[in-house]
Amino acid sequence: MNKPVDTRKKYCRFKKNGIKYVDYKDPNFLLKFVNEQGRVLPRRLTGTSLKFQRKVTQAVAKARHLALMPYIADALK
Amino acid sequence: MEVRNYETVFIVTPVLNEGQVQETVEKFTQVLKENSADILSTEAWGLRKLAYPIQKKTTGYYFCLEFTGSGNIVDVLELAYRRDERIIRFLTTVLDKHAVDYNRRRRNGEMNQQKAAKETEAVAQ
C-alpha cells in the first residue's frame, strides 16, 4: 500500500515574510535552522531559498563565534 | 574613502567590577571617536552566560556598538581589542542597507509590533 503523500508545499520563510536581514544577534531565531546537536539543517528540510540559506549559515557562524550559540551540543531543544 | 556602517560586539571578562567594565567600554568609544567615527548606538546586553567556555570563563559582559566610519578604523579598533586582555571575544561586521534598516527598527522598538498589536486586540475582544 502506498504511504499517504504529504501535499504541503515547502516554502522559504524569508521570502514569504519579507525578511531581508538575518540577525546573528538573535540566537533564538537561529535555533530554528539547527538540529538538536547544533548543526545547520539543510535546505531540503527547511525549504529556505539558496540566497537566504547562505545568510543563515553566515549568521550561525557569527553567533557561534560570539558564544551566543554552541558549536556542538547534546540536547539543544 | 567611502563611509561605511559597522557594528561591533565584544565580550568583556566577568572578573571586573561595574566601574572597571564601564571604563573599558568608555575606552573603546574613545578609540572610535578619536578616529572620527559617528557612534549611532551603544547597547549593553549585560552579564550573559556563554554557550561554551572562553578562557575558562562561562559568563561575560556583552556590548554592541553601531558606528559609521571610513579608512582603517576597523584595523585600529581591532588592534585595540587585541591589546586589551579584558576583552575575551569580539566581532566587527560591515552592515548592508538591510542591516542598517533592521537595526534602526530594532532601536525604535518597531519589532514585533504587529504581533503585539494583535495580542492587545485579542485582549480587547
Tell me about this structure:
The complex is a heterodimer of chains A (77) and B (125). Chain A contains 4 helices and no strands. Chain A has helices at 13-17, 27-30, 43-46, 50-65. Chain A starts with 12 loop residues before the first helix and ends in a 12-residue tail after the last helix. Chain A is mostly helical. Chain B has helices at 18-34, 73-83, 97-107, 113-124, and strands spanning 4-12, 38-54, 57-69, 87-94. In chain B, a hairpin with a 2-residue loop joins strand 2 and strand 3. Chain B is globular, with a radius of gyration of 17 Å. The model of chain B has no long low-confidence stretch (mean pLDDT 88). Classes of the chains: A mainly alpha (77), B alpha+beta (125). The A-B interface holds A 20-21, 23-25, 27, 62, 64-71 and B 9, 11, 50-52, 54, 60, 62, 64, 89, 91, 93, 96, 98-99, 101-102. Chain A: This is Small ribosomal subunit protein bS18. Chain A: Keywords: Ribonucleoprotein, Ribosomal protein, RNA-binding, rRNA-binding.
Topology:
The complex is a heterodimer of chains A (77) and B (125).
Chain A: H1 13-17, H2 27-30, H3 43-46, H4 50-65
Chain B: E1 4-12, H1 18-34, E2 38-54, E3 57-69, H2 73-83, E4 87-94, H3 97-107, H4 113-124
Antiparallel strand pairs in B: 1-3, 1-4, 2-3
Write a compact overview of the structure shown:
The complex is a heterodimer of chains A (77) and B (125). With 77 residues, chain A is mainly alpha-helical.
Rg of chain A to the nearest angstrom? 14 Å
Biggest sheet record of chain A: none
Model regions low in confidence, pLDDT < 50 over at least 5 residues of chain B: none
Based on CA atoms alone, the radius of gyration of chain B comes out at: 17 Å
Percent helix of chain A: 25-40%
User: Which CATH C-level class of chain B is it?
Assistant: Alpha Beta
- Determine the number of helices of chain B (DSSP H or I, runs of at least 4 residues): 4
Largest sheet of chain B: 4 strands, antiparallel
What is the CATH class designation of chain A?
A: Few Secondary Structures
Structural class of chain B: alpha+beta
Number of domains of chain A: 1
CATH third-tier fold name of chain B: Alpha-Beta Plaits
Choose one word for the global shape of chain A: flat
Strand percentage of chain A: under 5%
Largest interface summary: A-B, 15 and 17 residues
